[in-house]
Design a protein that fits this description.
Layout (H helix, E strand, L loop, with lengths): L12 H15 L6 H5 L6 H16 L3 H24 L5 H14 L2 H4 L7 H13 L20 H14 L7 H18 L5 H21 L4 H25 L9 H17 L1
Length: 273
Amino acid sequence: MSNQLHEEPKESAAAAFDRLLEIMTILRSENGCPWDREQTHHSLRSDTLEETYEFLEAVDLNDVTGMAEELGDLMILTALHAEIAREDEQFDMLGILNAVNAKLVRRHPHVFAGLEVESTEEVLSNWEKIKKNEPGYEDRRSVLDGVPTTFPALQTAFKLQKKAARVGFDWTEVEDVVSKVREELVETEQQLDRKDEDALEAEIGDLLFSVVNLSRFVGVDPENALRRTNRKFTRRFHRIEELLAETGESFDGKTLEELDALWDQAKDEESDG
């Protein structure tokens, strides 16, 4: 059997999507690709996570071409996961699409069923109520259930706080949130000289959690904020390395004050630019 496919562009998204599924079936077939045939849901876990982060990086860089390319890679993995499941008679792409379409309509009664809402908060509250009556959610006993254990700690904290806030467990004034951050910072400082690593770890955890809560309260995604600062730190540190190289110097023998002066120079150059 030939694996050749017609290469002309498809005229619709539906046709192009069907072609993707056809290609994936061929790749997983006896005459297909050895690598694709060997894959399982578990073996693709790292690839799926990696491609997700590569898409996020393209978003951070406002790289539109990169975003399109990375979404394409995620589509490949989605199709591959669906084909593996189809072969094992678990589920298939049609079932996935039908389920997600139904979910979107069901969870947006203010759009598709004439329900009147007055705010985003009300939309989110209705969303949680609707989820409770859906299959797969009947075993959830806590408002906090459903947060993936594989989330990074920062994202987990953010998600837990959002879920708690949706049922009213939240501050009402930003001043109270800021006060909590200060309180946790003081408690962390008190542990610095006590030589109790476990207690210090606990206090730093509380401090980080309170900062994430402040970020959420004022509408800033902490993951995005920290990634932005990471990029800024990397950019300025690279500039310090460049400035040292321009004078034939290195980090060896440099004092913190001297390095800090180079940091300020790198910072000022960004401001001037």
